[in-house]
Amino acid sequence: MGAHMGVPRKRTMRHNLQRHRRSIRLKGYDYSQPGAYFVTICTQDHLLLFGDIVDGKMLLNDAGLMVQTVWKGLSRRFPNIRSDVYVVMPNHFHAIVIILDVGAPLVGAQNRADTRPGAGTRPAPTLGDIVGAFKSLTTNEYIRGVRRFGWTPFPGRLWQRNYYEHIVRNEDELERIREYIVNNPIRWHLDRENPGRVGDDEFEIWLQPTSSQRR
Q: Ramachandran region of residue 98, left (φ > 0), alpha (ψ -120 to 50) or beta?
């Protein structure tokens, strides 16, 4: 395991398709807007901490399983997000996260407070909020793993300070990115995060003009 499909492949896009911009790192863009976002988060110094690629498949170790579990649980912390396709790789993490319309009622609320008047229209998190929570939770769990189970220690921080993100602008982009994520283990030899890469990945060349690094 390692890659996961969280929603049907033909899920309707809720993103405003009028926001076609060559650069999405424009000052003032509201990253709490409903839509689909492709994110890549890398370990500090590209350390290989979460498992190995064997015969084109990602074999998660305990740390990798922890990362997967934290990501799957984020919708409990942020009820207005949904996880789409994701994959835990040896030293990075790819995912499509969907921020839902903040005006939509919350579904499957577990907390009694969610049933109170106004609780179903809480403000949506920003993409930075989501990534920040993911980094913090996984870092804390990893530190516990180092202390209790002897996981490989990391120097300084678990994740790089920055992360890469891309606003998914239409259904064609969504399908192409989903395909890339699912096939990422097979294409590990071309991955820019692989210290031993042997070539260039055409997907990364296609994505670069509209992807940005965010602090």
A: beta
Which pLDDT belongs to residue 31? 73
What pLDDT was estimated at residue 71?
98
d(CA 50, CA 59): 8
DSSP type of residue 10: T
CATH of domain 3-11+30-102+117-214: 3.30.70.1290
Residue ranges of the chain whose pLDDT lies below 50: 1-2, 5-27, 104-120
* pLDDT for the residue 146: 98
Give the start-to-end residue ranges of the domains of the chain: 3-11+30-102+117-214
Which pLDDT tens digit goes with each residue over 110-126?
A: 333 343 344 445 566 79
Helices within 52-170 (DSSP H only): 62-77, 127-149
Non-local CB neighbours of 189 within 8 Å, separated by 6+ positions: 196, 197, 198, 199
Sole residue written with tokens 């498949």: 57
Strands (E), 26-121: 35-42, 51-54, 57-60, 81-88, 92-99
Cα–Cα dist 39/37, whole Å: 6
